[in-house]
Amino acid sequence: MDDYTWQQRLRARRAQERRQLSLVFLLLAAIAGAMVWYFFFYIRTPEYALEQIQTAITEQDGEKFQRYVNSELLASRAYDDLTVDLFAYDSELTPKSRSMFEKFYIIIKPQLATGLENAALTRVSSGSWNLPDGTDILKGRQLGIDFERFIERSQIRNTTFVKIGKVEHMGRSATAEVEIKEDYTQTPFTLILSMEQAEDGHWQVSYIKNYKAYLDKISPLQNKDIADYIAATKSIVSESNEHFEVFQNHFKRLNSSKNGHLSKQQKYNIAALIEDDIIPGLQERQAQLDAVEVPAGAQYLARQRQQATETSIKAWQHYIKGLREDSPAEFATAETLHKQELAMDLRVQDIIRHTAISKNIPNLP
């Protein structure tokens, strides 16, 4: 190879090395620019906050969720919309009664709004919905309402996220469209989230601007399905109630005792009544209910009836065991289960009553 050819190749190699070095610098600059954009700009956008909320729910990270959601304000605003919806179509409420209920819900707002917030945060951190327990004032109906039913009517347990839509920026405020779907009726809806920027630059969802509009759309759909289901099962329930009234009277007669103690024969007869009539009667009624097609929006009511039946059967089984083994522990278990079943029965009656008095629901398309 002569000197001229060697010099040419050397110059070409050096030019290629300079080009490669330039590309490396450009790539590093692009990476650095992307990192600067991400860490100094993107993480201070509403879009980033919405992504982090999704990640927090997926990873069950309650702390991260609370950083990007003002859960206290969100629950407070949602409570206001929800309590209006609770008796929005009640045809039996007089102006005086409506005013009384409004004042009542204002009084108990701190407890219920906090309960709503805690239920949602527990769902995020644990992946499951848990009801108040122990000495919690929201357990049962200590405040005069059924918190389980309250949560159900909020629709938060049966609403599925679909995707994030348009985000509009307005200085330190923003709105974000979030497409969702109501699980029972499969109804799509677009929620509009109000967002605010904190002092440190990160964004938070503060409240849902059109939450009441969502409730107004879903409630009539569910109520119509519930009304149809109640009508379809009315004869089954009526006939069953007649049979159980007979069983109840028989049960009372068998339990009659002058000294307050049941004889061996009485215990035998009571156990036979439960095993031969009451439990089979419960099973037969549930089988008939299960044979009825449940409209989409009435699934909760149907499930409550089913759970009440299952709990009642378990209670009676423990009662039988208590009779045969003379076991206070079995009687105590039976009583606990019976109270749970009564709570479900009362919830079912509340749903039926609410459907019956909601005569002013707007006509559905």
UniProtKB/TrEMBL annotation:
Residues annotated as transmembrane: 21-43
Organism the protein comes from: Selenomonas ruminantium
Alphabetically ordered keywords of this record: Membrane, Transmembrane, Transmembrane helix
Entry superkingdom: Bacteria
Name of the molecule in the record: DUF2939 domain-containing protein
